[in-house]
């Protein structure tokens, strides 16, 4: 190859190597900045993953079906269900005031909160009971896990979906068995369920189904928690089914791939460029010198790019720079003065 052409190709290869390194690092930094809005970079874990010290503080994506290790129980009605969350709904048959324009009329219906008839336009003849004898309530499982990780209360309550629970009247305690009977998916106090009267109660239960979900959250010990420092103000996500990360956070860029391979290739390209340039400066071609000089050039750029963003990565590249500098000086001196 002609000297000028070799010089041009060598310089181009060095620039390409440095440019590849810069693009790779910039892609990682851009991705990290975008991921930081949701709590940080997310690592994919298998459904059977277990807590490890090396995973602490990372955001993780897990796909699996939660397990209710300690199922919730409604002690008043002796009802236990294998679910993460059990909800008791209590409704009372009460008077309701219906206003349509200037017209006001009254009807009785099932309502899950106490209606104060004293605020009605026509309270006479529409009085409601003074209180609910039994209240609605939520019962959480004592322990819910996905893989080897426990779900924090915030994630537990974020589990999606609901399904109605059919109560078993035979399991009722004696004090309630005398008052309640089964009607459809309810327990009611009505003597004639098809014709309820004022003050009758209707109780039903709802469960969060155990189904496959995708959870993105921060690892804290053996627990999955919300990332409280996330810029999006949420720091977690729970979706039904196996959902890709980019569908959960569509503002994320495509995650950079083969980062290590690209960085190695960048060094090799720069080293090849140095190898072609060496004879131009009167130094014989030397593979070790070319590799050292290529690593020195690429490492210097990488150290600057990682400065202030990733101390660990910056220090690693500074080590590469130092080694590249030492080897370059040694080989350069040796090649110029082979007899020394």
Give a nutshell description of this structure.
It contains seven helices and 17 strands.
Class inferred from helices and paired strands: alpha+beta
What overall form do the CA principal axes indicate? elongated
Assembly state of the chains shown = single chain
Q: What is the terminal-to-terminal distance?
A: 32 Å
Order of SSEs? HEEEEEEEEEEHEHEEEEEEHHHH
**Count of folded domains:** 3
What is the percentage of strand-forming residues?
A: 25-35%
Tally of contiguous helical segments? 7
What's the average pLDDT?
91
Roughly how much helix do the residues carry, as a percent range?
Answer: 25-40%
Please summarize the sheet with the most strands. Answer: 8 strands, mixed
Low-confidence stretches: none
The count of strands amounts to 17
Give structural notes:
There is one protein chain. With 340 residues, this protein is an alpha+beta fold. It has helices at residues 3-36, 153-156, 174-177, 245-248, 259-277, 287-306, 311-336; strands at residues 42-45, 59-64, 67-70, 73-74, 79-80, 85-100, 103-111, 137-140, 143-146, 149-151, 163-165, 181-183, 186-188, 201-207, 213-220, 223-225, 237-240. Strands 1, 2, 3, 9, 10, 15, 16 and 17 form an eight-stranded mixed beta sheet that branches. Strands 6, 7, 8, 11, 12, 13 and 14 form a seven-stranded antiparallel beta sheet that branches. Strand 9 (143-146) and strand 10 form a beta hairpin. Helix 6 runs antiparallel to helix 7 (311-336). It is elongated and about 110 Å long. The two termini are 32 Å apart. The mean pLDDT is 91.
């Amino acid at each position: 190859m002609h000297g000028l052409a070799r010089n041009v190709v060598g310089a181009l290869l060095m620039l390409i190597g440095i440019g590849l390194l810069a693009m790779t690092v910039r892609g990682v930094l851009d991705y990290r900045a975008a991921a930081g809005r949701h709590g940080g970079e997310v690592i994919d874990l298998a459904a059977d993953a277990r807590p490890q010290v090396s995973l602490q503080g990372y955001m993780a994506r897990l796909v699996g079906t939660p397990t209710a290790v300690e199922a919730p129980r409604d002690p008043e009605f002796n009802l236990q269900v294998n679910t993460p969350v059990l909800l008791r709904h209590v409704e009372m048959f009460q008077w309701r005031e219906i206003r349509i324009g200037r017209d006001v009329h009254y009807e009785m219906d099932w309502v899950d909160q106490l209606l104060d008839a004293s605020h009605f336009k026509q309270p006479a003849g529409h009085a409601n009971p003074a209180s609910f004898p039994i209240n609605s309530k939520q019962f959480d499982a004592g322990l819910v896990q996905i893989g080897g990780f426990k779900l924090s209360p915030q994630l537990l309550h974020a589990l999606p979906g609901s399904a109605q629970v059919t109560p078993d009247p035979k399991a009722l305690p004696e004090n309630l068995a005398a008052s309640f009977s089964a009607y459809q998916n309810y327990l009611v106090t009505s003597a004639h369920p098809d014709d309820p009267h004022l003050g009758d109660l209707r109780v039903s239960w709802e469960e969060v189904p155990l189904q496959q979900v995708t959870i993105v959250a921060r690892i804290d010990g053996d627990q999955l928690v919300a990332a409280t420092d996330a810029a999006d103000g949420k720091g977690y996500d729970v979706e039904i089914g196996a959902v890709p990360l980019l569908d959960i956070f569509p503002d994320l860029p495509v995650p950079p791939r083969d980062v290590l391979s690209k960085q190695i290739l960048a060094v090799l390209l720069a080293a090849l460029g140095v190898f072609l340039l060496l004879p131009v400066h009167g130094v014989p071609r030397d593979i070790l010198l070319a590799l050292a000089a290529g690593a020195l050039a690429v490492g210097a750029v990488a150290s600057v790019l990682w400065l202030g963003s990733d101390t660990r990565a910056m220090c690693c590249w500074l080590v590469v720079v130092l080694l590249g500098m030492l080897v370059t000086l040694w080989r350069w001196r040796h090649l110029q003065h082979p007899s020394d």
